[in-house]
Write a structure and sequence with these properties.
The chain has 184 residues and is of the alpha+beta class. It is built from one helix and nine strands; from the N terminus they run αβββββββββ.
Length: 184
């Protein structure tokens, strides 16, 4: 009896090994793609929740809510698309704006929060443009104000997306909606 493997045995082994390696590689690639998408979605949820928390705090602290300005045509040359102004008891204005900004040569919709104190100096300015690749999908109906007597119900409705047009495994969209009434 001879020692070793026949040619048929070697070919069968190589075929089975090749099929198993393709299947395992495919499973691992799918796993890592899904992990990237989950991480992108979780980052958007955290960032959107921070925006919603700031918005709710601003509305609750405000004494005066200015009805959102009508949307401009968000074409070239127009910077502000939609703005909601909130004023608190110390006459600090907080302006929430949905506007166009060019990022890396591409026009994108962003949401900003600008705090202007009673001295006229501009305070913090934060928004979706502070995070690389995070943008709004639309400025349409982002702010609504319903008035019932002295109370105003302010609604913020937006969808964040990350890496639009990028690879499917690293792009994500998450919708957010909150309604807050003023305290007075």
């Amino acid at each position: 009896m001879k020692k070793g493997f026949t040619l048929i045995e070697m070919l069968v082994f190589l075929a089975v090994f090749g099929i198993l390696s393709v299947v395992i590689t495919s499973i691992l690639m799918t796993f890592f793609r899904n992990e990237n998408k989950i991480a992108a979605t979780n980052n958007l949820r955290q960032y959107g929740s921070a925006i919603v928390d700031n918005f709710e705090r601003d509305v609750r602290a405000s004494d005066k809510v200015t009805t959102p300005s009508p949307p401009s045509s968000c074409g070239s040359g127009v910077q502000d698309c939609l703005q909601l102004s909130l004023t608190d008891i110390s006459t600090t204005n907080v302006n929430w704006r949905c506007k166009i900004e060019t990022v890396a040569g591409v026009p994108r919709l962003i949401l900003t929060r600008e705090v202007i104190t009673y001295t006229g100096t501009s305070g913090e300015l934060e928004g979706t443009n502070k995070r690389d690749g995070v943008f709004l999908t639309s400025c349409t109906n982002i702010f609504t104000v319903l008035v019932s007597g002295s109370l105003k119900l302010v609604t913020l409705n937006f969808t964040l997306q990350i890496n639009p047009g990028g690879g499917q495994e690293s792009s994500a969209q998450v919708p957010f909606r909150t309604s807050v009434s003023t305290r007075n």
